[in-house]
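Fold this: histidine kinase
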Amino acid sequence: MLNSLSGRFLILTTVFVLIAELLIFVPSVARFREDYFLNHLERAQIASLTLLAEDMISPELEAELLENAGVYNVVLRRDEVRQLILSSPIPTPIHKTFDMRDPPAWMLIKDTMMRLGDTEERVIRVIGNPVQDGGLLIEITLPTKPLRAALIEYGINILILSAVISIITASLLFLAVRRFIVKPMRGVVDHMQAYAKAPEDARRIIMPTAGITELREAEDALASMQTQLTGALKQKERLAQLGGAVSKISHDLRNILTSAVLFTDRIESSEDPSVRRLAPKLVNSITRAVNLCESTLAFGRVDEPAPRLERVSLSEIVDDVVAGERLAVGDHDVSFAENIPAGMSVRADGEQLYRVIGNLVRNARQAIIATGKAGEIAISGDEDDDVWTIALTDTGPGLPPKAREHLFEAFQGGTTRGGSGLGLAIAAELVRGHGGRLELERTDETGTRFVINLPKSDLTLSPQIA
């Protein structure tokens, strides 16, 4: 209850109203003290009029008049003459004099607070103006004990009234908040929970009905988000089905194309000049198709296991990659340079790191061969206290503009003409699985440089691909 929005609102409202009432309490008590003095001045003046009307009164009547007025003495100044009208013995000397003829507000508040804090029984003098022009000035002496008791009683009544007002006000606000804010918010939360159980069910999308502007905006935003999410989930499901179909087709097509490669070996041995001239192009086309199928199958394996991290020799992996690529170069003038420090090992999955480096080297080799010029591919390794660094540099023509814009995006960032871009996407994903980064450091007409950063710590460097 107290941890709810309405419960906290109830507590805060009660506290704030009490603070406001306390701020009113001080001047209210000061005002009560002023009225107390003025009332006693008026009663003393009325009592003194009795003596003025009858020159002599009995001591008993005088004592009764002073008691009814609540004072010890009454001094009235009329016609510039100061006259003690009524008097009785004063138990203690006069402690202080207060002038009630237009006193400043701060002085009233100060004197009131001092009186509330002073528990001693004292006698004070009060000066004021007579009512109905009954003289020039009237003075009275009175005890402070009844004054302090009256102030305390009045203050307690004020505090009780403030508490009652606070409780009533807070209760009304509590009910209002629950009705106009908490209940609509609870409805939004219920809609969100119901939608979370079956987000693909469009019937569970919230229908904005709130009358409060802010809540209506929240409902509109939630409805828009749920609509987009439901559409995205349906699209994702269709894409997943399509991906499964493509993987199956690619698998079967790869088998068919592999058989076609075997037939092209027979075609290449033909003595027909036209056949011998066209056979290499046919072989290249089929080889590209096989590579595309294999890349599609690799990219579609969502259940590919996480990397098994262990210490592996970087130079051995690079040697295996270069050895295979040298065979693929054939008669083309492409050289390889390896600059891996002796004994350098990295913590990685050897098979996955081989695929990453192999994809990058293959792309570089194909780009250089496509130019018809000589070129070089250099692979180097380095390390510091935090990172292992593997750099692959080639002297090819650089990446085309489309590849730069959609780098590491499947089917978008092909580095060669007709390429699918799956090689870079797979490489980047495998490096991410190691907690590292695959970065394009440079690409221009003089060549391209990729850098692989693998962290030495157990924490990933970054979830982003630079």
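Residues 33 and 112 are 7 Å apart (CA to CA). The mean pLDDT is 78.
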